[in-house]
Design brief:
Its cofactor is FAD. By secondary structure, this protein is of the alpha+beta class. It contains 11 helices and 11 strands. β6 and β7 form a beta hairpin. α3 packs across α7. The model has no long low-confidence stretch (mean pLDDT about 95). Bound molecules: flavin-adenine dinucleotide.
Length: about 400
């Protein structure tokens, strides 16, 4: 087994290009009024996407056959951390959630016709996608509680149910919908994934929820499926296999969250370090007080540990390992640690830490949700514990 942490020269060059692009071109948009309470609006997103396209930095992670650079998981870790310096960086580069995970899933499971219709426009940055699983009172931490039902009559599926917390639903065109196929004589029953165009009658956006984060395009919506009628060709993969496909999507998707938030936490740390260097109290820069330097040191240790955890899990996945256990450890550890980093940065900044004088306040609020989605910390620890008992 070889262990080599060298970043190859071509990857280093790509990372540096992404760093400059995000710092110089994207950061100024953080004060744009089109960054609303419900995330960047579609107009802002389109403008950012065009900037990335012009720099050949759009959807670089996509497989080569779909026009991307076919980045490995480790390569994504390096590039997404650089993109995450601004929460708008991944939006511009089309590697933000949920599109990034959805593109990955569709690339693995969709058939050629579905790829043309539902995946390629997302890869080209022309339309957005959603993954609709979570339900009020139904699927959540435990996806087996899925209640949305698809009834197959031999020709069409008729879907009824209600979902919430569906990121980007308002305005998205490519929909991946999880529903339970009722027992029938034609196809396997059970949790299944369906593809639909966002304009299909029967998809109803009830409202966009008011949440504490604002980094996802379109925010998070409550949606209803009201006799949504889809043909047999709308099935993604095979009926009855949704939970397996969701796992396929989730392990890499939860890691890419870690990568992007690592970049955001590093940004918060750099702002806190600058402040600690220049702000004085009791006769010296505050960074020279041990209480502050220890907070900054704890941050530096956490950032380093998180990076190593992410890189190791990526390395396993690049070696063909599904790394489910390791990705659970990474997601639970990184989300908790990075949130503590952001919290300490707020503290170092004193009163302005809770104001929008710096971006640290937004990073802190946005990052809070990271401990919940793609598996709350406790659910990952529950899985890690079960894995240990099985071993
Ligand atoms: C910002 C954001 C974006 C999201 N985007 C999407 C999306 O695009 N599509 C989508 O389908 N969903 C999305 N979600 C939903 C997300 O996947 C769920 O919030 C998550 O799966 C948890 O489900 P729940 O909210 O129903 O929590 P619940 O299932 O109600 O759980 C509540 C709490 O119970 C505890 N808990 C649960 N199980 C265990 C256990 N086994 N052991 C110990 N404690 C436990 C945890 O602390 C958990 O936080 C999003 C959520 C957020 C916050």
């Amino acid at each position: 087994m070889s262990i080599d942490f060298t970043v190859p020269a071509d990857l280093e060059a790509l990372r540096d290009r992404v760093r400059s692009f995000v710092a110089d071109r994207i950061v100024p948009y953080e004060r744009d009024p089109r960054l609303t309470q419900h995330g960047p609006d579609d107009d802002l997103r389109a403008e950012l996407v065009e900037l990335a396209r012009a720099e050949k930095l759009l959807t670089v992670q996509a497989p080569v056959e779909f026009g991307g650079l076919g980045l490995s998981h480790v390569e994504q870790a390096v590039v997404y951390e650089a993109a995450g310096w601004s929460t708008l960086g991944p939006v511009a580069m089309n590697c933000a959630a949920p599109d990034e995970g959805n593109m990955f899933l569709l690339g693995k499971v969709a058939d050629p016709e579905q790829i043309d219709r539902f995946l390629m426009p997302v890869i080209r940055g022309e339309q957005r996608s959603v993954f609709a699983m979570t339900e009020p009172g139904g699927a959540g931490s435990d996806p087996n509680q899925l209640t949305t039902e698809a009834v197959f009559d031999g020709e069409n599926f008729v879907i009824n149910g209600r979902k919430w917390l569906i990121t980007g639903a308002d305005g998205a065109k490519t929909w991946i919908i999880m529903a339970r196929v009722a027992p029938n004589p034609h196809v396997p029953a059970g949790p299944s994934l369906f593809l639909a165009d966002g304009d299909t009658p029967g998809i109803v956006i009830e409202r966009v929820m008011n949440t504490m984060d604002r980094n996802y395009v379109g925010g998070h919506a409550v949606v209803r499926f009201e006799n949504l009628t889809l043909p047999r060709s709308a099935v993604l993969g095979t009926t009855g296999e949704a939970l397996r496909y969701a796992q396929l999507r989730l392990a890499p998707a939860r890691l890419t969250h870690c990568m992007r938030w690592l970049g955001a936490a590093a940004r918060a740390q750099s702002i806190a370090v600058d402040y600690a260097r220049t702000r004085t109290a009791f006769g010296r820069p505050i960074g020279e007080h041990e209480g502050v330097s220890f907070m900054l040191a704890d941050n530096e240790v956490a950032l380093h540990q998180c990076r190593l955890t992410i890189w190791h899990t990526c390395w396993l996945m690049d070696s063909g390992d599904r790394a489910r256990h390791e990705s659970s450890m990474a997601k639970s550890y990184v989300s908790e640690e990075l949130f503590k980093v952001a919290d300490r940065c707020v503290q170092v900044l004193g009163g302005i830490g809770i104001s929008d004088e710096t971006v640290v306040e937004m990073i802190f609020r946005d990052m809070r949700a990271f401990r919940l989605y793609d598996g709350p910390t406790e659910v990952h620890k529950f899985a890690i514990g079960r894995h240990l008992l099985r071993e």
